[in-house]
Each structure stands twice: as structure tokens, then as C-alpha cells.
Amino acid sequence: MGRKWNNIKEKKASKDANTSRIYAKFGREIYVAAKQGEPDPEANQALKVVLERAKTYNVPKAIIDRAIEKAKGGAEENYDELRYEGFGPNGSMIIVDALTNNVNRTASDVRAAFGKNGGNMGVSGSVAYMFDATTVIGFEGKNAEDTLDLLLEADVDVKDILEEEDVTIIYAEPDQFHRVQEAVRGAGIEEFTIAETLMLPQTEIALDEEAQTQFEKMVDALEDLEDVQQVYHNVDLN
């Protein structure tokens, strides 16, 4: 899964360079999670996961608090969680997750982003079967061998553990997210490079330079959409 980690790093670096856009997306996601359950992360696992992710992107506490207070205040903004699937050049596959208060607008915007950049939307299920929902937890300060030992002691199942550039990365099933974090925190790790559940491709493909340039434009166009929260794909961008 090493190449997947490289793609994840590039995606995080891209997000870190667009902080205002990312903060706005997190604000919406935090609001929705808090609205759907208790506005307390200790009583709302979905909210807790979002807040853990927000920490790895250095989302300011003021933005987090504002979104939670908005949910507590009974705001009546309603959002639908949508997933779109589609294709780019030369067998590339894309999953787009969105939160929207206007389904027609979002569908039109996503379809346009695909179409204007050489791609096309597919039907539900046309792409997702080639991806696996996977918890990815990354941190510094403990090597892979020691991390495996502590996870075994805590009886936590994982798919893989790798070391990349001083970062230890754990890949696990989605339902192991909190158990992995609790085990690692028990060993004194408090800061995480990444703490997310992502849709990772089962296999990755390489594109030639022209196709990759076109593909990256399409991904950028999708990620620039206000309603789009996450974009996943199967292209090795290294």
C-alpha cells in the first residue's frame, strides 16, 4: 500500500495549500455530524471521527466550535450525503462524495466537471466495487514493529503497517478506527499525520503525461466544487 500512501500525502498537501476552502468543507461536515446526533463527540462517534480528521488539517477551534454551536442552536439547514461515480481517461476511476442542500445543483456541477475534462459519470456501483473503505492512521514516534506489537496486545486487527519517511501508517477496517487510535494513544502518541477512513483503490493505474494532466484538471475541478467533500481515484500520480 506504499504507493497509496504517496497519493494520500499529495492529496493532504493539496488540501493544506487551500485552507479556506478546506475549513469551509469541514465546517459543513462537522455541522452535519453534530446535527445528526448529539453535539458531543464523546456521545457521537460520527462527530468524533470528523473532529479527529479536522485536527490533522489544523482546522481552527473557532471554526469547529461555530459549526457545533450552529447545530446546537437548532439551525434548519438540511444536507444530503451523496456519492457519484465516474470515469476519466484510460480506465481511470473516480468516486465523489458530497454534502449538499441542493441535489440538482450538485449533480449538474459534478456532471459538468467530468464532462468538461474528458470524463463521464457512471451509474451507482459502476466504480465503487473497485475500492475498499479503509481506516488510515499515520503518526511519528513509533516504528512499525513496535506498533504491531502494541496492536496485537490490544487485540486490534489491521490490514497492513508500513513505515514511510519516518511516518508509521496503519491500514485497518473502518470499524477499527477508534480501537486503533486508542491503542496508539495508549502508547503515548497524541499527534496524528492522518486519521481518516478513505476509499482506497484495490489497484492503481498509471497514465501518460497528457492523460495525467487532463485527469488532474478533472480532479481539481471536482474538488473545487462547494458541495464536494472528498474525491477518490485509482491513479498513481507519482
TrEMBL record:
Keyword Kinase: no
Key words of the record: Cytoplasm, DNA-binding, Transcription, Transcription regulation
HAMAP family on file: Transcrip_reg_TACO1, Transcrip_reg_TACO1_YeeN
Keyword Transcription: yes
Name this polypeptide is given: Probable transcriptional regulatory protein JOC54_004292
Gene Ontology MF term list: DNA binding
Family: Belongs to the TACO1 family. YeeN subfamily.
Organism: Shouchella xiaoxiensis
Highest rank taxon of the organism: Bacteria
A Pfam family reported for this protein in Swiss-Prot or TrEMBL: Transcrip_reg
